[in-house]
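Suppose you are handed a protein chain with no further information: no name, no annotation, nothing but its sequence. What can you learn? This example shows the usual starting point.
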Amino acid sequence: MTDRGRRETEDERADRRWGELIQEIRVAQTGVQILFGFLLTVVFAPTFAELPSTDKTIYVITVALGASATGALIGPVSFHRIVSGRRIKPQAVVWASRLTFLGLVLLLATLVSALFLVLRVATHNEFVPWLVAGVVTWYVVFWFVLPLWARYRYTTLD
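A reasonable first move is to predict its three-dimensional structure. Written in structure tokens, the prediction is:
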């Protein structure tokens, strides 16, 4: 049996995990902030008033999802700042990780909703829900299924 451990103290492990988490959050935050910023401008476009009420409802839902995703992905930074110096970094990492995962799920919902709205407005095609379902499947497979499979496949239980 090979010892694959890092031989870290609890504090070293928390510091490493925090650094890794912050790098992951930076990627997701950039995407969600750009998308959310764009979504906020749509309502001011002259043609927005001409949209059917269904599309306006989808837009409102998309903006709410984007705001929620942004909040969840920025939450770990606030969490860390508030608890910094209290010697609870291991617990802060756990909560920040949960917020990040929630943010990714909300980001997925935002992307799906935005894609659905844009394709509805652009094409008015009955094929749109099927296309969006395909994209959702793509995201779910690569964001969740593949990592969960790898976690199951390559994690050894001693």
